[in-house]
Amino acid sequence: MFTQIRQSTLPSLRSDHNPIVLTCGDEVFKKSYFKFEKWWLNVEGFRDKVKEWWGSFNVTGSPDFILASKLSYLKKKLKEWSKENRGNWRVKKEHLLEQIGSLEDIQEHRALTDDEQLLKAHIAMEYEEIHWRQRSIIQWIKNGDKNTKFFHRMATSHKRNNTIESLVINGEESSDPVAIKNEIVDFYQILYKETESWRPSLNILDVQTITEEEQILLSRDFEEKEVLEGIKQCVVDKARGPDGYTMAFFGVFWETIKDDAFSGLKVNWRKSSIFPIKEVQQIEDLASILKCKIKKLPIVYLGMPLGSEHKAEKNWDGIIEKTKKKLAIWKSQYLSLGGRVTLINSVLDSLPTYVMSIFPIPNRIVMILDALSRNFLWQGNKLEKGFNLVKWYVVQQRKKNGGLGVRNLKVHNMSLLSKWLWRYSQEEQALWKEIINHKYGQEDFWCTSEVNETYGVRVWRTIRNLWESLKNNSKIVVGKGDKTKLWLDDWCGNGILRDLFPILFSICTNTNSKIEEMWSPQGWNIIFRRLLNDWEIDGMVECLGLISGFPSTTLEPDRLAWEHHKDGIFSVNRLYNWGLKRCARRSIGPWNTIWKSVAPAKVKCFTWLVARKKMFDS
């Protein structure tokens, strides 16, 4: 009846009875992977062998490839050594069992002597210790203790915890290992899929920050001493990596492998190239000295096109191809309208943002990307042509304004480029700002001079052209007056004094001075080239009335503040929302009620279509 049940006897280790093993069916065996065993380190000559093997491996290539290859070659050597020197614990256990069997044969004919009984007990203990210690991943409670019972329980418990004997699948219990594995894989694939749901947001403004010294400490390069200390602090017998090596291996053989491990942090000239700009003499000699390659611009480096025209459409070819793959029409039939909106926003937010933060996006590229998004949104079935139920500019509006919140690429591009202008006004000591100032000159503290050159300036000229729009929507908050010019900056809230009082400006001697240079506790120190006429005195009185709000008692430096938010902090998202608001058309509807509800995304989108009266009559 039970054809798969088998029983067999094993040698007795302690008792005078032989244990009987009852097996019920075939055990499902998994592939055996390489594992570096800590007890190998105690074998005489093992450490010298590892050092010898490591030095004999001759590998060329990148540093990370060399390290990975040497670890792989060493793995093969360790497997061979384990078999040849009985390092394999199975062979050693079989040898111990043979010794126990020989003693049991003697015991059948006569009683064992005290020495033979002691030897049998010692062999049995050594057998159990090897067997259960190899299966356990728990450290010894005390080094050298014969804690066999402890290891036996831990190893057995791990096997029980890691074994699923049966699983209910579609209402029926199944013990088929393949079916169980497939069901588990399917379950976690569904579990970890991205879904649209409420997520908390944290607005933390007043928090304790670390000191400048701590910042430097955190950002400095790692030293060899730190790496070695980190390795030593790891638990040596746990958490094997995918290559099978434990931290014990790296700790013991650190002096042997450290050069290969650290070489990955050095410049690999074989993988490096030089790119001459215009004509460079003796470029071949330079490449020969550096042992690197010679290549030509343009190229794509870290996703950024280098050396190409900033308006060249080929800069966007990679983004278009990736967008086509991400928004393939066949995917739309498996997603609801809400799911398609989520995927479109995810793709548009991630793929083009890196390039859009540097280059202005051409109108034709905007049309292509919008077409891909639009077709994916409305093409619910790949066998049928979709209908654009709502105009695209409406879909791109914010949800609270009646849209679906799909990214407007043109406005987003403008917001990303404007970020550089804002950073320019905030980052005083930044290296990139010094380079920009050196090349284009500085109009004032807040921005560079206008770009009038014709060659090699198009990227920054495009960004600089956005300054007037950003400046008109920002205000200067005067602190101690260290950055703001009295006559040339719009700081008093009524306009630039140069434009409000042109006559006074024309006869003033210090028109380019900052506020802190023209103010003292005794009052304003405005010097004119001549005495003021009667009609000019009236203008001076009016001017002093406008700037009477200063002096300020604060010692804070002057700063630029974003006018459209009470905290004055600029962000790309805030500028984007402001840009959308400028081109938005008034739309009355229950939009907030729809999107704030707890209904699923597909229900919200369906309700949105109903509210816009854009449903098909079936």
Automatic annotation (TrEMBL):
Domain of life: Eukaryota
Protein name stated in the entry: Reverse transcriptase zinc-binding domain-containing protein
Lineage: Eukaryota, Viridiplantae, Streptophyta, Embryophyta, Tracheophyta
